[in-house]
Amino acid sequence: MACIFSQSFPTAFNGGSTESFTTPTRFFNLSPKVFSQSFFLAGPINWDASNLRCGSSGRIRRRGFTGRGRNGAVFRQRGFPVFSCVASSNGASSTSVERVSVLVIGGGGREHALCYALKKRSPSCDAVFCAPGNAGISNSGDATCIDYLDISDSLSVIAFCREWGIGLVVVGPEAPLVAGLANDLVNAGIPTFGPSSEAAALEGSKDFMKRLCDKYDIPTAKYQTFSDPSLAKAYIKSQGTPIVVKADGLAAGKGVIVATTLEEAYEAVETMLVKNAFGSAGGRVIIEECLEGEEASFFALVDGENALALESAQDHKRVGDGDVGPNTGGMGAYSPAPVLTKELEKVVMESIIVPTVKGMALEGCKFVGVLYAGLMIERKSGLPKLIEYNVRFGDPECQVLMVRLESDLAQVLLAACKGKLANVSLEWSPGSAMVVVMASNGYPGSYKNGTVIHNLEEAEQVAPTVKVFHAGTALDSDGNYIATGGRVLGITAKGANLAEARDRVYQAVDQVNWPEGFYRRDIGWRALPQKQHRVTEG
Predict the structure, then answer these.
(1) Is 207 helix (H, G, I), strand (E, B) or coil?
(2) Cα(486)–Cα(500) distance, integer angstroms
(3) CB-side exposure of 396: number of CA atoms within 13 Å?
(4) What whole-number distance in Å separates Cα of residue 491 and Cα of residue 178?
(5) What 3-state DSSP class applies to 98?
(6) In which region does residue 352 sit, left (phi positive, over 0), alpha (psi from -120 to 50) or beta (all else)?
(7) Partners of 437 in the β-ladder
(8) How far is it, in rounded angstroms, from Cα 58 to Cα 80?
(9) What is the CA radius of gyration of the chain?
(10) Alpha helices by DSSP H, 336-460
(11) Helix, strand, or coil here: 513?
């Protein structure tokens, strides 16, 4: 393997230690696709300044480097040295590529899937960090988790990026986006995939999203916004039920009530506007008509002016089999979603996504990131209407999309950051993927943390296409995985078709030994002949 030193990604360090190292130093978390052994001598090396090839004396600084060329001239570069390597793990030849280190913000199943795609499917990605991450992400080798980094402190995140030469930040959750993390990173000159706080209002305020739809003729459900509970109840009475009551702001997926009776709707208004259950997020409510049809998720990458559609996916929001019970963050998903035909995808792009991108630009807050459109394919018309926008990848839809994506995710997201999506195309694996979420008993209500989970390795050994994504896990003192949240695992599998993906994923679920957890047994029922997975003991 030949290593070529690259000066293409200098970073903004101030100073740095100048001591040389004379013992083998681990350049940690390099992709196994690049280095079969991530150890090399960080001590006396020399490099040829004319062709930048490794030589035999000089000095690497901890936060920068100093080298000597053939004529004795001293060359200095501030920053973490970036290597381009000519190597291949499968023995095939490959060309030299400039590499990038990526920081993923978040610590759930969505972020695990992003780390997986960056580490295992992105040839240009040199190192993947995840803050804060979780035990499963770290142990799987999909990223180096930085659990001490305070992602709510932009200055700390910026300092970390500069210290480690981060060339791309991918923000997973919505809260840091709404808080303005992307604004601060972009202002610091760090490429960031995720919208500004102004653009994140598409998710942060349902009223903002609805008003944008009104202004730019984007099809959505009829609605009214209220801050007065009496007026809200009067409107509900005039419209009848079923009806939907939504908190205006972010409510961790719990701010939407589909009321089938007036009493339920009134109670939802009381909970949000009077009891202040969601704080400022519930200071206004949106009362919306209840659309009938089939829900689907549509994702598009956006660079401010151009939108690139991803493959379709469909999730299952209700907690119980047969889509009963309260809404959750999502109990399972599959991709592609047959309900979204190529013709419908074209309609979605033309009538919903493109007008949104153009409208946001006209409003002075260009959107850069992923638009996640929650859609209802109306039963009567067969046409899509926008239910809501999320400004990040969905969870668990991200899991099935990332195991199917075959393009270099790092380069695609960098293109979005640079406004260069117009000429980008994506490659997807054929067939289908499915994820089944395993959650703590009691979710989405109260649940117990700290319950022990066994046999996750056995689950992944069911088939090469099975992957266990961790959403809420930690390690106990004995090294066992324990649950630390409501939605804990996303057991994911690919297959030649959706039926095969379903069979594999439930075979993997069967291997998991977690008596205090549960899962839906009918993921994919809309797209497949009804076949409920049986519950196995142990």
Answers:
(1) helix
(2) 28
(3) 32
(4) 29
(5) coil
(6) alpha
(7) 490
(8) 16
(9) 25
(10) 342-348, 354-362, 397-404, 409-417, 456-460
(11) strand
Strand-pair partners of 498: none
Q: Which residue has the tokens 């930690």?
A: 474
* pLDDT bucket at 44, cuts 50 / 70 / 90: very low
CB 287 within 8 A of CB 236: yes
| pLDDT tens figures, 236-284 | 999 999 999 999 998 877 789 999 999 999 999 999 999 999 999 999 9
3-state SS assignment for residue 465: coil
Could you tell me the two tokens for 405? Answer: 């994506």
The predicted-structure confidence for 52-64, as pLDDT tens digits, reads as follows 333 332 222 233 3
**Alpha carbons 61 and 9: distance in angstroms, whole number:** 16
Q: Which DSSP string do the residues of 7-45 spell out, in sequence order? A: -S--------------SEEE-TT--TTT-SS-EEE-SS-
Which DSSP helix (H) or strand (E) runs through 132?
Answer: strand 125-132
User: What is the per-residue burial (b if ≥16 Cβ within 10 Å, else e) of 275-304?
Assistant: eebbeebbebbbbbbebebbbbbbbbbbbb
Nearest to 294 by CA among 268, 319, 307, 312: 312
Q: How far apart are CA 28 and CA 127, in angstroms?
A: 8
Separation CA 232–CA 279 (nearest Å): 18
- Cα–Cα distance measured from residue 62 to residue 48, given in angstroms and rounded to the nearest whole number: 20
Q: Which residues of 481-506 are buried (b: 16+ CB within 10 A; e: fewer)?
A: bbbbbbbbbbbbbbbeebbbbbbbbb
Beta strands in 399-514 (DSSP E): 432-440, 452-453, 466-470, 473-475, 481-483, 487-495
Whether residue 35 contacts residue 126, with contact meaning beta carbons closer than 8 Å, is answered with no
Q: CA–CA separation, 433 vs 406, rounded Å?
A: 13
Strand partners, 368: 303
Peptide bond connecting 81 to the previous residue in cis, omega within 30 degrees of 0: no
Which phi and psi angles does 459 have, rounded to 5°? -65, -45
